[in-house]
Amino acid sequence: MRAGRLRLVLSISLLSGLLGACKPASEGAVGERPGQGGGAGAGTAGAAGNGNPPVTATQEGAKERCATSKVGPPMLRRLTQPEFQRTTADIFPQIVSGWSGVKVGTDSVSALGFSNDAATLVVSQQTAQEILSTAEDVATRVIADGVLPLVLPCASSADAACGATFIAQYGARLFRRPLTGDETKRYNDYFTSVVARSSFKLGIKWTLVALFQSPNAVYRSEVGAANGATYTLTQNEIATELAYTFGGTTPSADLLAKAAAGALATPEARLTEARNLLTTPAGKETALQLFREWSGYALVKARTKSNKSFTSDIASDMSRETDKFVDDVVFAKSGNLRDLLTAPYTFLNARLATFYGYGAASGADFSRVDRPATWGIGLLAQGSLLSANAHANATSPTWRGLFVFSKLFCNTRLKPPPSVPSLEEPTPDMPMTTRARYEVAHVKNPSCSACHTQWDPIGFGFEHFDEVGRYREQEVGMAIDAKGYVKDRSGRQTMSFDGAQDLATQLAGDADVTDCVSGLMSEYVYAGGGGVSCLAETARTSLATGKIGLAEYLAQLATEPQFSQRALLTQ
Amino acid sequence: MGRLRRRTFLAAIGLGIAAPLALKMARLAGAAPSPRPTRLFTFYIPHGMPLEHFEPLGTGADMNLAGSGVGVLSPLTPYKKYVNVIRGVGMNDGISNHGAIRAMLTGFTEGQKNGPVDSIDNTIAKALGVTPFVVGARPYTPGAGFSSDSYLVQHGSWVRPTEDPVAAADAYFQHFAPPPGSMQVDEAAFRMEALDLSAKELQGMQISLSALSTEKSKLKLHLDALTALKAGSTSTGGGAVSCTMRPTLPAVEAVRGKDPLAQENFALVLDAHLEAAAHAFVCGTARVITMQNMHVNSDLNMSFPGGPNFAQGHHQPISHSSDEQGRSDFAKCQQWFYQHLADKLLATLNQPDPLDPSDTTRTVLDNSLVFVASEVSDGAFHNSDAKPIYVRGIEQPSHLPLVLIGGGGGYLKTQQALDVSPNPGVESRMHTDVLATIAAAMGAPVTSIGGQSVSAIAELKA
Q1: ipTM above 0.90, yes or no
Q2: CA-atom Rg of chain A in angstroms
Q3: Do A50 and B213 count as a contact with CB atoms less than 8 A apart?
Q4: Rounded CA gap, B263 and A394, in Å?
């Protein structure tokens, strides 16, 4: 850890006692950002309590930098709902037509807001029932007339050899490795037993149910084999990790063949596979999901606004706008974090262009539109992000500031105090700008300012954008003041700016921001990383020094020791 | 058949109760008392309550549920004799709304006290040997995932409420589901064997990963889940079921194929869940159901069809209102939930209990507990305690807005509005004592929750 950061950590420790004395603030205080969870790791498996690393990743931990990467503990990762869906569709494409999909429900999200954290993804009774129901549904479809011959060409023979073929072929796809001898015998015995009491088809059905819900199928194994001071993941485990991390689905037969040939052992080989997988539709979608869950921009689709022109179509358009923006900057242009924060354009269709007031309509399809000067730049000026972090009828400097505070600087906000009254609403005879309301209630009120001055002044920088993300010169007939500042947790002012463009430009050049974002991305890619910080120091340095862009950064995470090794732990 | 028995039999038949059970009811009419078939329905309404629009006037027979302001509780007036409005209760550990939802049924802000604490519904269900069902009307925001702001019920791990009323009804009435296809053999045995196979694999993994305590915990949770599935834990606990077929559920059918998380379907989904739950209680196919409406900080726009017609988010700005009009609007939103609870659940439960043939005058409500609760006291203040707040400079009391409806199998003294705090206005009664009271009424008494001593509230006992 760098000396400067050590001082900061100590400062935080000292300060947290002071901040704990924050008195009730207004506007639902700091914990009010909607839809991002408010818990402190609730729902996770909790620390092991035996000296092993904690299992839950943290904001502060994500930002941390070290001289070398640390390696996380061995673990099992339950497939996420989208992973179950894509896996099933890839292995049994014959059933997809008319299929409503897996019955596995929405996944729990971690304290970082990520839906793929290995610590959060568990199999409760509810999940076990959903997996069983999915397995029975899939198996019933697989044995349907007209489908089974496609899935299993030897099915017409209806003999034990065909059953064994099914087990070997689909067992290997579902387990993402060849079955062991014991497993093969176990499933063949079960198949034979069911057939003896029913039929060949039911034998296939129930054997598939057993294979589908097997822990070997439900969990991605990242345990490896002891190799000196670490565990080294097996080639099949690496193939699986590559396929799900960068492709969002189960490893292809080709990738498994490479694993069988030991061709995924080198960082270079893994990098090649990661790059290729990120170009597939599922891979790109998986990467976009990272940006959605990190920034929360897709939450705009769940927002409602008092402004009637903000329809669900507009909200969906805004989310697509940001999808296309991220796709262009990160993948098409191989941009880095600076580009993501400062690109002077966006993607609009006619409806959205009209809504924002751009004037020039661009038709039903989205196309690139340069932003007018002063209308903001980069990700932070996206309507989706601005609307998602605003109230129904007003902006929220608190929420917008908290986004920068937590997602770009990786600061952990304190829990809001009890008994937090709402902000007073302005009255028609005494109009106030939003900034003025917040300054009165939060910044100038000493009982609130200790906490709120850490993020509200950042949020003031976005005041040229109303609660639905449109540019404005004035509010309630008064000029907008978008000046603000950034403080570190010791209270030292580290940045001052005037408006979102100035703020974005400065953030783009801030090393702490790169450390934070690259850290959070590594936590996402390593799906929690077992709660370990400093997961990908080489790749993070390459990103920070501008050698590589964000897409390449993601791919290079496959070359890091964290990807292929696990730490030996003591009981 | 004696006169009483004949009358009982005909009354039961008239209610559509299965003839064998109706006959049993008639036979048992006047027989020696046996444990009453209690049911528990927990109904979570988020974001607290503007108490000035909630508080009833008076208590006992004179209690006026429409007494204050908007009269949030006025929909309960037809069921007044079953109502307890409990004042003076606060969260023992709930310092903010975010932690408070997780504490509401577990007793602890993170649902943890030296490890996960079961929520009270699971504790009760385990004691009764029945399945605890958890359903929800938009219990999380689509796209945001099932986050800690939605964690209300914990059964070893946090439980995501069943979103779709059709799926919930299928689970309640699975006894009556037709066998799949033209099944020639008993596939249930094959299912058990498949579960066995997976359980054995899990046990093998537990051994091979025994050095990894967190993964071992994960596998244990999984194994426990399979064990429960294998046990085929019944929703009835082996008790009687009064129906011979799945009841007609028009509100459930009305949402079939619709997106249960869509804002425009919220009222339909809420009604369908209530309808299905009510009929499951009458039939006896479910004994413990928790229904979660929205979640902490849910900004569901309350302008959905059939709703209270406020085109604003429930959390922001409605629940945060501090001005008179805003608090009145918030009260009307909360009243909307009570109205639907009354219309779709209480009305159905207010009929002779087919599972309690020992006294045909008893209704299902007599034998039930409907627990209506929120995670915070006042929406605009986010407090979860029972202390005064200042609204526009005027002091007014606040406490968790807790209502019990039903006789709890004769355990409860009802038709009361009472303050149970040890020192009203100064000190809160711990909400875990309310949970203990519910458990006692359900025939599953507890003396501690998560290692913390609790006691049933004497003033609520008949």
Answers
A1: no
A2: 26
A3: yes
A4: 21
Chain A, window 129-158: residues with a beta carbon less than 8 angstroms from a chain B beta carbon: 129, 132, 135-136, 140
| Residue A401 C-alpha, separation from nearest chain B C-alpha, in angstroms | 18
B67, B57 Cβ separation under 8 angstroms: yes
Per-residue confidence at A529, pLDDT binned at 50, 70, 90?
confident
Torsion, CA A103, CA A108, CA A109, CA A114, rounded to 10: -30
What are the tens digits of pLDDT across the range B371-403? 999 999 998 888 888 888 888 778 888 899 999
Q: Which of A495, A491, A489 is nearest to A510 (CA)?
A: A495
Q: For residue A24, name the pLDDT band (cuts at 50, 70, 90).
A: very low
Q: Which residues of A touch B311 (CB under 8 A)?
A: 304, 306
B54 to chain A, minimum CA–CA distance in Å?
19
- Asked if the Cβ–Cβ distance from B213 to A111 is below 8 Å, we say no
Distance from CA of B216 to the nearest CA of A (A): 10
Contact B213 A213 (CB under 8 A): no
| Nearest chain A residue (CA) to B233 | A125
Terminal CA-to-CA distance of chain A, rounded, Å?
27
- CA closest to A210 among chain B residues: B194
Among A55, A106, A304, the residue with its CB nearest the CB of B146 is A106
Main-chain phi, psi angles of B419, to 5 degrees: -95, 120
Question: According to DSSP H, which parts of B60-183 are helical?
Answer: 97-104, 120-128, 165-172
H/E stretch holding A61? helix A59-63
Query: Torsions phi, psi of B84, nearest 5?
Result: -125, 120
Best CA proximity match to A513, nearest among A338, A335, A298, A327: A338
Q: Distance between alpha carbon B142 and the CA centroid of its chain, in Å?
A: 23
Q: How far is B386 from chain A (nearest CA, A)?
A: 11
Residues A108 and A122: their CA atoms lie apart, in Å, by: 9
Do the Cβ atoms of A128 and A92 come closer than 8 Å? no
Distance from CA of A289 to the nearest CA of B (A): 11
Q: Is residue A179 predicted with pLDDT exceeding 60? A: yes
A 451-510 residues with CB below 8 A of B? none
Contacts of A302 in chain B (CB under 8 A): 141-144, 299
At B24-65, the pLDDT tens digits run 444 444 444 458 999 999 999 999 999 999 999 999 999 999
The alpha carbon of A28 is separated from its chain's Cα centroid by a whole number of angstroms, namely: 26
Share of chain A above pLDDT 70, in %: 87
B302: nearest CA partner in chain A: A304
First to last CA, chain B: 34
Residues in chain A with CB shorter than 8 Å from the CB of B326 are 425
**Closest by CA position to A516, among listed A486, A484, A559:** A486
* Segment (H or E) for B404: strand B402-405
* pLDDT-derived band at A535, boundaries 50, 70, 90: confident
Low-confidence ranges of chain B (pLDDT < 70): 1-34, 92-96, 178-184, 232-238
pLDDT, position B93: 58
Query: Is A344's Cβ below 8 Å from some Cβ in B?
Result: no
Tell me the pTM.
0.85
